[in-house]
Amino acid sequence: MSGLFGDASARAAGRAGRVVSLRVARSERAPSILAGGLITCRAAVSSAELAAQQDIRHAVFVAEQAVFQESDHDAHDDDSEVIHLLGRYAGDLAGAVRLFPLDHAEGLWQGDRLCVLRPYRVHGVGAPLVRCAVATAGAHGGTRMVAHIQAPNVAFFVHLGWHAEGDAELYVGLPHQRMSIDLPSPDVGARTMRELSAGIRH
């Protein structure tokens, strides 16, 4: 299983040339204007949105953290069942996360590739993205979600209701902790998705 769920909720430089770099530049010029902005989380649907989530991941996992040398794209990204979520702060693209079913019969889902661009980490975008991933998996009939969390972010996930499972393990040379959470019912998950799509304030 792939990991990197929660890597960047505490650590992203934008990649020049596309949407992400433009958004980062704007936020760095006028951070005070963004204070108290609306946070929205919803699925990436259009080709532009799907490209944007890949740009955000590249900015964090390749350009900033150097976890991957050229790209973090893997086979899951080509799976039609994968759901990519985008987080926005005050209308700006700010973060991303993906989720996918591991076992439909058992209702088991996995979340990974959580990342938030550097200028937005002080605005609390990470937690709504995790909540949206959990809600989305529940709305799709899942009953449990697992993730592999980088060690510095375990406490953050515990605060969100996740539980550690087993011992720490290495993924791409970094210590990760397998964690899990029970998913909400489809009705509750769908309601939370609507709330996060409409937006919340940090």
Automatic annotation (TrEMBL):
<dbReference type="Pfam" id="PF00583">
    <property type="entry name" value="Acetyltransf_1"/>
</dbReference>
<dbReference type="InterPro" id="IPR016181">
    <property type="entry name" value="Acyl_CoA_acyltransferase"/>
</dbReference>
<dbReference type="InterPro" id="IPR024035">
    <property type="entry name" value="MSMEG_0567_GNAT"/>
</dbReference>
<dbReference type="InterPro" id="IPR000182">
    <property type="entry name" value="GNAT_dom"/>
</dbReference>
<protein>
    <submittedName>
        <fullName>GNAT family N-acetyltransferase</fullName>
    </submittedName>
</protein>
<dbReference type="GO" id="GO:0016747">
    <property type="term" value="F:acyltransferase activity, transferring groups other than amino-acyl groups"/>
</dbReference>
<feature type="domain" description="N-acetyltransferase">
    <location>
        <begin position="39"/>
        <end position="184"/>
    </location>
</feature>
<keyword id="KW-0808">Transferase</keyword>
